[in-house]
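Before the break, one more example. Copy the sequence into your notebook; we will annotate it together after we see the structure.
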Amino acid sequence: MRFLDNPPRFLFFTGKGGVGKTSIACAAAIRLAESGARVLLVSTDPASNVGQVFGISIGNTITRVPAVANLSALEIDPQAAAQAYRDKIVGPVRGVLPPDVVKGIEEQLSGACTTEIAAFDEFTALLTDPALLTEYDHIIFDTAPTGHTIRLLQLPGAWSGFLETGKGDASCLGPLAGLEKQRARYKEAVDALADSARTRLMLVARAQQATLREAARTQQELQAIGFANQYLVVNGVLPESESALDPLAKTIYFREQAVLKNISPELAALPLDQIALKPFNLVGLDALRQLFTEVRLADGGLSGNRVPLDAPTLSALVDAIAADSHGLVMCMGKGGVGKTTIAAAIAVEPAHRGLPVHLTTSDPAAHLSETLAGAVEHLTVSRIDPHVEIERYRSHVMQTRGATLDDAGRALLAEDLRSPCTEEIAVFQAFSRIIREAGHKFVVMDTAPTGHTLLLLDATGSYHRDIERQMGGKGLHFTTPMMQLQDPRQTKVLLITLAETTPVLEAANLQADLRRAGIEPWAWVINNSVAAARPSSPLLQQRAGNELREIDAVVRQYSTRYAVVPLLKDEPVGVERLLQLSELVVPNEA
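Here is what the structure looks like once it is written out:
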């Protein structure tokens, strides 16, 4: 692997969700540690599954990986970091100020902005802490999906620039309380990220147009903020030997090779590594140690087993959704499981029947237009773009609150609205508008990967508690976005997964989180099922055999209703293929 040749101190792995960043980061950490280097593996993903991959509990403190000498791991838990940050600020005034005042301060610090600052503060410490830099030869970062990684890597400069103005009003005083003291450390973090001798970034992709387009955009954005030392790693490439054994494998192989031959000039100029698709799930040390090596196939595959004979199709779910005249459908799950494709397939079917549908996304790395590849009558498409929403929010505040201020006051207000905290408010307001729209039409939302969707729901819950505190005691009727999400007559949450260990576990954990928030998932969708495609390729058959246990777990343990979507020869891009997707029938012959 070229990306592991003469590695610098800091290694970052980023890319679109589901491309294998965590597996590759873990395998790289094992290889470096077993070569004698002292390695710290850090996950900055709010929905980290590093612990699952190693089969141990890690959490928000540096933890030794018992089976690998020289290797330790850390999962930056945004919620735990935010709670520690709140305790640091609220602790000194608890028992000094009246309880209702303390509660108000806690509520001010309960939003996603505080969570972002706290996690970011931990991230910059890892780049600059002298003790850590002495203890470890390499610090490897397994990052959140691309859009959020770019946001994280931009933050040192964003906060440094904001602090240098020395301005900001009470709307951000709570979260900003400890940042002024960290100015020098943030500058040091920026310098470390921009230094090619200290930092290398791996753009992880699959041999698919969408993930390589994402990698090309990421390459340009990160180079613009100082990341010059970049490598391209294409994961899960189907070996040529499989193409002669199966029509499905042959189509996939030639499609992947065509995509790789047509990557952008910017990506083509980067050092490239390709990692072959493996027949097993990349969970556990034995599997991770084999990721960078050629693997011989074991005997056996499906062994006569099949997907459950009565596996429902996506069309059954679409029919049930379309039976209502309106409502919100939210597709949630781990990055890379196909939320965008499933959301688009669900949206185009009611629109095809003449019903008004709004298809939208909260994912910063959204690809709705590329998935649809055309217009659909009765279907409108949008995106919650943080940059657009921030400008909308700033304009509204300046026209309302700013209208009564003098020039000096308007200047101070405009400066405050340039704070990174503004994004949380703006995105939440856009999310709320979309929820309200579902009261009179179908709204289908393709959400960001799990952890960041939970942060958005956390902001929604925070707003609900604030309104409840203000209005509840007055006997007034009110409805908040959270109440609409909790109402099964108005909202249907679909958990999208692959028939693989990590996506299923993450979806199960997400289901538990949603239930704690009073939101009951409506259905599960098992997407891109190899077993449902009934392959004859030995490698794909072994992957299909591995799927059966996960499908059974979804059916028996987690879902009240579900659907299975087979892996397809052709990517489901374009309206016609999306319409066909919901009509696919899982073969049920013995």
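The two ends are 43 Å apart (CA to CA). The CA atoms of residues 120 and 155 lie 7 Å apart. Try to locate both features in your own notes.
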